[in-house]
Amino acid sequence: LYQRIDPNRTAQSLHMDAIKDPIKAILLNIKSEEFATITNTLETESNGIELIHHYNESYIDVTAQGIDKHTTIQYILGAEVDYIAFGNDHNDIHMLNNATHGYFVSNANVEYQSFLKNPNIEVINNTNEAICNVLD
């Protein structure tokens, strides 16, 4: 996760009061015994946010409600667009569920059995060969 945060080094350190319309925050290194308490507090005492739990990696994505990969696709390409999507994490669920066809690239850190309920989502191995076969 750390190598994916701000790879271009454009982030700034701001005081909380200076952030007027945040769209995302990541809570890192959450102790396992505190995970449920933090999650419950955020869910019950915050309005207008969505949480993506990463239990196995000890962090929580906090995003503004309605801001995710699927809504971004709709914003850029239009609300009624067909698309094929690849994803490998919790934050890809909404995008994959709404894709014409979605491919969940298996990930040891993500429980993917729920994807099998959607006939438009196929679980594929995390290999170059599996991805190339889909693209072929």
Automatic annotation (TrEMBL):
Domain of life per record: Bacteria
Any single Gene Ontology cellular-component annotation: cytosol
Keywords: Hydrolase
GO MF, one annotated term: magnesium ion binding
Protein name per its UniProtKB record: Hydrolase
Organism in which the protein naturally occurs: Staphylococcus lugdunensis
